[in-house]
Fold this protein.
Amino acid sequence: MVPVNATSAVILGLLHDGAATGGDLVAAAERRLAAQGGVTRSQVYRELPQLVRDGYVDAEVCGPGKRTSQAYVITPAGRTAFAAWALAPAPADSVRSAAVLRLGFGAHLKTAQRRKIIAAAVAEHEFALAEHEQCAKDLRGEGDAFAASAAEFAVMYERAVVAWLRTYPA
């Protein structure tokens, strides 16, 4: 069995819900994993052929007419690979924030520069907070408690960042 990376694991996880085209996978990842950064269209389309080669998904041609597409279905080997990824020791989490990085050198910045960084970061994180709150609400409404919980983590993270920014010595 070939181990899968995080992007492939996301695709396999989404395919547990049923057959999907590449576009369907991108949309589902955006909706369900926005709090985790999601995956890009190029990442999905780069991984799908490898997942087919490894026997983790099957591709089926679908759609009549000139514009055909492929629907992907997870195989039993894909379910096994996904489970192996989920149970493998995870790498250490890291939090990387451009604002925190810059403000960590606040002693070398002027007051106006620090305030500008803080104002921009507060606006960015308040916007993200609103998006994650809506995402969590939508996912709860759809009955997906697990994805809603992941979105709620992002809500708590954004609230913590905004609170920290408001206490930073400007």
About this structure: Residues 23 and 70 are 10 Å apart (CA to CA).
